[in-house]
Each structure stands twice: as C-alpha cells, then as structure tokens.
Design goal:
Blueprint lengths: L1 E2 L15 H13 L4 E4 L2 E2 L6 H14 L6 E4 L2 E3 L4 H6 L11 E5 L8 H10 L3 E4 L10 H7 L4 E5 L9 H9 L5 E3 L13 H10 L4 H5 L8
Parallel strand pairs: 1-2, 2-4, 3-5, 5-6, 6-7, 7-8, 8-9
C-alpha cells in the first residue's frame, strides 16, 4: 500500500512531536502494509522553510533505515495568494520534487477551488486536492469540475463519519477519487487507521481497491 498524506516528519508542524513518535508512526504504517510513505508536513504563507524540511527528512531517513519501507518527502500546502510564484521560485516542497502538489483550502471560507487548480495546470503543475470531503460548500458538480484539473484524495477516517456517506458514495461511484490516505498526525486520535475505509471499498467498490490503496503514483516512479 501507499501512504501519500501524513504528518510523520517530526517537529515541523502539528504532527509527530519527536523522532520516537515518527518511528512509531512509521511502524504503524508498516503494520497497515504501507511500504511507500510520502511525508507531507504543512506549508503555508508563513511557513516555507523548505531547507528545514529537507534536513529533518534526511535525519528521519537515517533513523528509519532498518525499517521495511521507503520514505519520500512532499508537503501539504495551504492555499494563499501568490503561491504559484513561490512554487516557481522553489520555495515550496512538492511531492518528491515533482510537479505534483498536495494542496488544501479553507473548509469554512468558500473558495473557487476549480479555478485555482486550473491556474496551477496552466503553469505545468499537477495538483492533488487534499481531503476533499472536508469542503462542505462543494457540490457534486464542483467535484466533477475539480476532477478535470486535479487528482482527488480523501481521508481514511472519513469513512467512519456517517455525515460523509453521501459525498463519498458519489465520489467513488463516479470514480473521481485517486487516493485514500490517513492524514495521520499522532498515535492516538489521528493515527493511520485504514480499517473502515478498506472494508467499505472492498465491499462496495472492489474494482477500485488496487487503484485507491496500491497504485504507485507517478511522482514516485
């Protein structure tokens, strides 16, 4: 399996608080059969210290060298104006230094997400919208429009919330989802539990199981 959205890199955001927690989370990922893990610490307009992320990643890779997995570095970028300029200037950590960018938006302030994603594609970037189920202001038509310009990721724990059932059903029935990821932050309330997501997909969308959990993304190949 592939984990492409998690906050395991230590001491850089609201995720893992130290290397011990990071290593334990990696072990949990391996227990979930995730052998490829893309670390995606938060970046935003006030926090673009790419060098720190890179150095911390090198440290973690060394400490995790005996664990049965491969680690890669990305980030989860919170949308802000002029972010494309910062992408062009190399200030933002993309997914494994590719053109793929994991991006999130405000869940409360209605945002023209499809237009922003389109602008990214015009500049040659390949957006991945993070946890699309969180944007309550999006309609089914919005989902279809967004899928024209971006890959769509949903969180594994979204399948535990009945409030998400209708939207997840639409997204999966229409095969709009590319990734299911844990978005894990810690060992307790926001860990890497895929159990419910796997159960639902296997039962109702079995033909998509390999794509959603096992497909190696282009930014890793």
């Amino acid at each position: 399996m592939i984990e492409m959205h998690c906050h395991i890199l230590p001491m850089v955001d609201d995720g893992a608080k130290d290397f011990d927690v990071s290593l334990e989370l990696i072990r949990k990922e391996i227990e979930e059969d995730n052998k490829i893990i893309v670390l995606t610490p938060h970046q935003n307009k006030n926090y673009l210290d790419k060098e720190l992320l890179e150095n911390r990643f090198i440290e973690l890779k060394e400490k995790a060298k005996d664990l049965d997995c491969k680690l890669y570095l990305g980030s989860e970028l919170y949308y802000y104006e002029r972010f494309i300029e910062d992408l062009d200037n190399g200030k933002i950590q993309t997914m494994n230094n590719s053109k793929y960018v994991l991006i999130e938006f405000s869940t409360t302030l209605e945002t023209a997400i499809a237009d922003i994603l389109y602008d990214m594609t015009i500049k040659g970037y390949k957006p991945i919208i993070a946890h699309i189920e969180r944007y309550d202001y999006l309609t089914f038509d919005d989902y279809k429009e967004i899928a024209k310009y971006a890959l769509i990721q949903v969180n594994a724990d979204a399948f535990k919330n009945k409030a998400n059932k209708k939207n997840l059903k639409f997204l999966l029935k229409n095969k709009l989802v590319t990734f299911i990821a844990s978005d894990c932050h810690d060992l307790n309330t926001r860990s890497c539990d895929y159990s419910v997501a796997k159960k639902v997909v296997m039962k109702k969308y079995k033909d998509q199981y390999d794509k959603l959990f096992n497909q190696v993304p282009e930014f890793i190949k």
